[in-house]
Design a protein that fits this description.
It is a single chain. The protein is mostly helical. Helices cover about 60% and strands about 0% of the residues. The protein contains 5 helices and no strands. It starts with a helix and ends in a 12-residue tail after the last helix.
Length: about 100
């Protein structure tokens, strides 16, 4: 998720990166469940709201930097990396944290 947030902060079309997050979590069949399901739903809601704001602004909405920082803070509540939580094992690339 760090990669998508960093890319969105720099992009003139941040909705492209945010839609990736929405796409991964939108379908209940793809979204992780279990003890962290509420956090994934919180990430999804925040990403959907931000995606709508980007679309309405046709690019970068006012307050984008803070909204992206807030989105990452929600994701940081999860243990490990997003890729580990989605697949059950660590993966290189994708939405994995790159520290």
């Amino acid at each position: 998720m760090s990669d998508q947030v960093a890319s969105a902060k720099k992009s003139v079309e941040p909705a492209d990166q945010i839609s990736t997050i929405v796409g991964l979590l939108e379908s209940p069949d793809n979204r992780p469940s279990g003890p962290h399901e509420a956090i994934y739903l919180e990430i999804l809601a925040a990403a959907q709201k931000l995606n709508s704001q980007c679309n309405a602004a046709q690019g970068r909405p006012e307050g984008l930097e803070q909204s992206l920082t807030d989105l990452k803070a929600i994701a940081d509540k999860l243990p490990g990396t997003v890729a580990e939580n989605v697949s059950g094992e660590a993966q290189d690339g994708g939405m994995a944290e790159q520290d």
